[in-house]
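Encode chain A's predicted structure.
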Amino acid sequence: MNSYSYEGSSGGPFHRDINTNNGGEYTSLTFYMNSGHVQTEQFRQGLHGPYALAFSRSGVPEGGSNMDTTFFKDLGITGYVAPSARGTVTGTATGVDSSFQRVLHWYNDAAQYWAYADSSGKFTSPAMKPGNYAQVLYQGEFKVKAASVTVSAGKATTANIAADTETKTSIWRIGEWDGQPKGFRNADKQLRMHPTDSRMASWGPLTYTVGSSTLDSVPMAIVKDTNPLTIKFSSTSTAAATLRIGTTLSFAGCRPSVTVNSFNAAVPAAPTKIDSRGLTRGAYRGFGEVYNYAIPAGTLVSGSNTIKINCASGSSGEGFLAPNVILDAIELFK
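Encoded structure for chain A:
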């Protein structure tokens, strides 16, 4: 598909949806513009496309993403913006570890675009409609910087962007800050299996011991009152600390509730509601909330410590339709 295919859709570069439906004697293919599934933006209205669907008996169809749709400029279609009336954004993205993909995302109420920086951080956007855009840099799928940029017709605008830096010292971290539940239990299956599928490993409750457990000891999702996570670790310090929990998607208002030894941390405000299932739909992308829990001095003890993480929510539900959050990473700072 050419670079215009998704500019009028909603969801950004990491949106997942059900695009195939195997109905026995037939398989249906759906190209969604605004499906409403795990919707994080307002629907974008107006002209969608041009786009084309090509088939081949094997391999990538000839033409692929290079299909020539420039003839649309001569058709007088309302809402169509020709290549000559578009602009681009170029620059360098810095501050993202080289082991992660650097993704650039531009969006406003009318359009969305994305591109990938090369190994040196350099990037060039697709041809964009003129206007003011939010420009976001992601470390993998984790947002590390947001800025703004103005795109003008027929011009290449330079807009370098650098990830925000962290000033705290990490004590331990579980997972990577990449905006994905990758490595956690059942994350390798959830994209194509329902959580109740017999091929799924037990969802818990589970216990992770810092320094000895594998990531598979952490469930990719915590479901309210179903599989709270216990973290055990040793400490030599009783100083104040901060527990940071990153989530990729929240369902039914769930946000993590935290108990450190006998201390109950303040429960954060409910996240922005997404009126759609995710865990049971094969999706894990939402707004990507990050929560910080202040741990007062004297809460941690010299020796063995325990943190318990559950789902705090006033909503109700049964099974995997109970309030839940999908995890990104968990980190203790000082």
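The chain has two domains: 20-162, 170-333.
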